[in-house]
Amino acid sequence: MLRDNTTRRRGLRHFSPYNRGVERSDGMRWRTVGAEYLFCNPWCSFRVDEVELPDGVRIGYGVLESGGFAAVVPVTSDGRVVLVKQWRQPVGGFTLELPGGGVEAGEDPREAVQRELREEAGYEARDLVHMYSVHTSPGRSTEVCHLFRCRAEKLDRGPEPEPTEFVSAVEMPISEAREKASRGEITAATTVLGLMLAGGS
Amino acid sequence: MLRDNTTRRRGLRHFSPYNRGVERSDGMRWRTVGAEYLFCNPWCSFRVDEVELPDGVRIGYGVLESGGFAAVVPVTSDGRVVLVKQWRQPVGGFTLELPGGGVEAGEDPREAVQRELREEAGYEARDLVHMYSVHTSPGRSTEVCHLFRCRAEKLDRGPEPEPTEFVSAVEMPISEAREKASRGEITAATTVLGLMLAGGS
Description:
Two copies of one chain form a homodimer.
Chain A: H1 6-13, E1 31-40, E2 44-52, E3 58-66, E4 69-75, E5 80-88, E6 93-97, E7 100-102, H2 109-121, E8 123-135, E9 144-154, E10 167-173, H3 174-182, H4 189-197
Parallel strand pairs in A: 4-9
Antiparallel strand pairs in A: 1-2, 2-3, 4-7, 5-6, 5-10, 8-9
């Protein structure tokens, strides 16, 4: 079940901030000897790499491959932020997070953000500004989040989520969302990062 | 290969900010019908849940189970932050991140931070303050990061990393680390979050 995953990640490669933070030349690097895919679907894969550590010891190392996603801090003209509430199977409950979604192969993360904000929340993204591109869990996963902020302008037609997306939009003053993050009521790392660093009151 | 993972996560459950942000009662919840573990080792597991969506459709959903970790923004009396450089197999390169490590079952995340700061970087953590406990990737993984800040006091004996940890400590003014995060040269989400929100100049 070995395969080349170049194609699925192509959508991220062209986005300049991606991988600037990853240095590749050093005597302490691990050497990858083999890899076996245990699971592949369109959204994520799981592989076990056989790696040789700098001291020559070989171990199996589990890696989650997950396509990148883009998320946005959408702030309305009256200082409210638009979030989405959705079920998150890994944490076994509902979370409040920034609107966003997967970046498809070859897609600009800005387009992904605009599409998801329209579909999930019914807002148009204006004055979109890139904040950070971060690895959500570099010790476990290939996943990258491209984080943006924008002015959010309400669309007359309202949200139009995909039939398989069970999300609802939730609006609140950004100050309230920040308090929720401080109290541990909003817990997604990239959502906390975006809310706290997007500026505005 | 089904198993109960209550025990391995016990170390996180007692830490109060964990899971306050996860709401469990709502008509849009997914129903878990089954689960199969494809991989388990002491550090992470990968399972595929069979879930029933609110519209009755059943799908397989891949979940990475990863024990929580604790990380700290350690700032010296002259405004320098202590980071660690290490190989990260999922991103295929070296990263600069906050010192930290896994929270063992039953362990207080504060103890984990103090131990890792001593071992990886050769510093004692003083005035440890909890900042956030966040889900690194709630759509893909159970992983939680408990984020702290502290004053860092250099130990005479220097770092004493575990023989299997190939990490090196890197010190720089916290202002420089923040610039690196802004330029995309530091990319781990929880490291960016910690650096930007730890306060101090």
